[in-house]
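Hello,

Our lab assistant flagged a job as stuck in the queue for most of the afternoon. It eventually completed. Since we weren't sure the result was trustworthy after the delay, we are filing this so someone can double-check. Below is the sequence as submitted and the structure that was eventually returned. Let us know if re-running is recommended.
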Amino acid sequence: MTQSAHDLLTSGDGKLSLHYFSIEGVAEQVRITLSVAGIPFDDIRVPFSEWQTKKPTTKYGQLPEMILPNGQLITESMAMLRLAGEADPEGKLYPADVGKRLQIEEALGLTADLSRAWRPALYIGMRPEKLGHPKSVDWAKEEKDATVKKLREAFLEEELPRYMGYYADLIKEAGGNAFLLGEDLTIADIAAYQGLNYYRKGVADYVPADCLDPYPDVVAFLKRVEEQPKVAAYKASKA
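-- returned structure --
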């Protein structure tokens, strides 16, 4: 018997739980989508101080992990996002229509591409050895800071404007006053919101919190997402 996404997330002896750190990260888009879809879940926050003990107990040595009410383990955040979207009783977050899903997948891919473009500039500060540089503890601070600054400023000057243009085009094609693909909020909007809003937090050195201000269409889109009633209700519950 075929089981619906809604039943999979709500039926069983237990309760749906989502396990991640006490940060937004890749889990926040899943938390928002579950909340918009009206799916109750236990939001389990793992302290960083406990991570080295918990890490060997995870399937792939990473979080998030989702445990369904029937005990099944889900390990990839994008699988969680799509599952939560499909569970939307209104059928809008991840519609069954193949044409609409194709549009959503393209927009999700754009957000993933932006994330990949940013990754070297991010990792140069966190894990420079992954990019062929010395580990942070072995790298002269002045040299490391100069390299981080160079990569992040290059991202702001070259990659960010290009991607903001792509998002602005999507917004305009959808009418200019709603979401990326039209009047209905989808998981593509939630993923884009999370991915883009990161740059406004001022948490990365040399990436100022006002770096998206030159892109008013994108800033207006982000405002529409966070003011969507169900998204706003979720955010208010976490304030």
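-- support follow-up --
The delay was a queue issue, not a problem with the job. The result is valid. Residues 34 and 84 are 5 Å apart (CA to CA). The longest strand covers residues 17-21.
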